[in-house]
Design a protein that fits this description.
The protein has 407 residues and is an alpha+beta fold. It is built from 14 helices and 17 strands.
Length: 407
């Protein structure tokens, strides 16, 4: 069997954030409701000269540079997003042009709420596996701006960012055997954004219920595929990454995982197991969600970057369970077999460096930027010049003849 998976990872985090304490003060909400309830401390704020295209290109440019990959080597480019900038032209096409990727490349955009990135990875792995001896490489990017209405319940879960993955045979970071993946899907209205709406409509409690049902069913399917009986899966996983629209969702998810996988245990024993395994297997992946917020399609993969940043070489050779969920809904649970010799990959992410270089914005500045996000011309040269940033190679400069312009 050919070994296919992810060889490297890059992440792009916008250079501005709003502290949740400041948002809480402006909204008249106790700060601990955000810090303890949601588990979030900061949320990334996207300036008007960036969008889903620039973030995707900025993440992918890092990835190509750190791996020494020639853009002409990429033969499949998949971008997953629910923050598309055009109803017809895919974000992947913009990225292809900005990165100068050759024309002998299959490109497309995937939309399936927060699940789209996983669909891109799975299809790319399967595409490479079908090509056996050919040295095919795929670039899979997740890029999103999670934006909600001012003062809405979803406002403190906002965020923005992009994750790029290089998929190929004989991968250096992790392998995935897609034949064992656990799958679940169902037609539900838990989170949706009708055409023409700038922000989504969310049925919060129902969405959590849909998420937990999807996880239970996807995990059950995965166990069946690999032949692991109920109650034994946790011992086969060194870490678990959950899709996290907010940090507290990982707690809800892991609680449900333990309760449904260990129905034979009493309440006290399940609580002890939950506490022990959450700290060891889940908490190392929470850094990004806590510091950045929700990035939709990239959220669970920002969890992967967080795990690598937090655990460093301790993750080498480990088995990582990943639960990916997208509203609507589609879900998948799969196993990542981590490789060894990962220090160069981890250091090359410069994840903590990106977090540390950020600047806080005031509540007033946040309102100003997000209020003018629908303007036809968003390029403000003085602002861009004042905030030059080594991670931000591409910027949006507005429209010309209804065409989006980037430099």
């Amino acid at each position: 069997m050919i070994d296919v998976g992810v060889s490297d990872i890059a992440i792009y985090i916008p250079q501005f954030y709003l502290p949740h304490d400041e948002l809480a003060e402006a909204r008249g909400i106790p700060p601990e409701k955000f810090r303890e309830g949601l588990g979030n401390h900061k949320m990334a704020i996207l300036p008007n000269w960036e969008d889903s295209v620039t973030m995707a290109a900025n993440a992918a440019a890092q990835l190509l540079e750190k791996t020494g990959t020639n853009p002409q080597e990429i033969h499949q480019l998949v971008v997953s997003t629910e923050s598309g900038v055009d109803h017809s032209k895919p974000v992947a096409s913009f990225v292809q042009g900005l990165l100068k990727i050759g024309s002998r490349c299959r490109i497309y955009e995937i939309k399936h709420a927060c699940y789209g990135g996983t669909a891109g990875i799975v299809t790319s792995i399967d595409w490479i596996a079908r090509n056996y001896g050919n040295s095919k490489k795929a670039l899979v990017i997740m890029t999103d701006v999670a934006r909600y209405g001012f003062g809405s319940p979803g406002e403190p879960t906002q965020g923005a960012g992009a994750v790029a993955l290089l998929v190929e045979k004989n991968p250096r970071l992790l392998s995935v055997d897609t034949r064992t993946n656990g799958i679940f899907s169902k037609d539900v209205f838990d989170f949706w954004r009708p055409t023409g709406h700038r922000v989504p409509i969310v049925d919060g409690k129902y969405s959590v219920a849909c998420y937990l049902e999807a996880m239970e069913e996807a995990v059950s399917h995965f166990r069946s595929n690999v032949g692991i009986p109920r109650g034994r899966l946790l011992e086969h996983l060194d870490y678990i990454l959950y899709h996290m629209p907010f940090t507290g969702m990982a707690r809800k998810a892991h609680r449900h995982f333990v309760d449904t996988e260990h129905v034979d245990l009493g309440a006290e024993a399940r609580q002890d197991l939950y506490t022990e395994t959450f700290r060891a297997k889940v908490e190392p992946g929470l850094l990004g969600a806590r510091e950045v917020g929700n990035i939709y399609t990239g959220s669970v993969y920002m969890g992967l970057a967080s795990l690598l940043e937090t655990e460093q070489d301790r993750v080498e050779g480990k088995r990582v369970g990943v639960f990916s969920y997208g509203s609507g809904c589609g879900a998948e649970f799969f196993l990542c077999q981590m490789k060894t010799g990962l220090s160069e990959i981890i250091q090359g992410m410069r994840f903590q460096e990106q977090l540390d270089r950020r600047k806080a914005v005031t509540f007033e500045q946040y309102v100003q930027w997000y209020s003018r996000s629908g303007a036809e011309t968003l390029y403000h040269p003085a602002e861009v010049e004042a905030h030059k940033d080594p991670f931000t190679q591409f910027t949006f400069i507005g429209f010309k003849d209804h065409k989006r312009q980037y430099v």
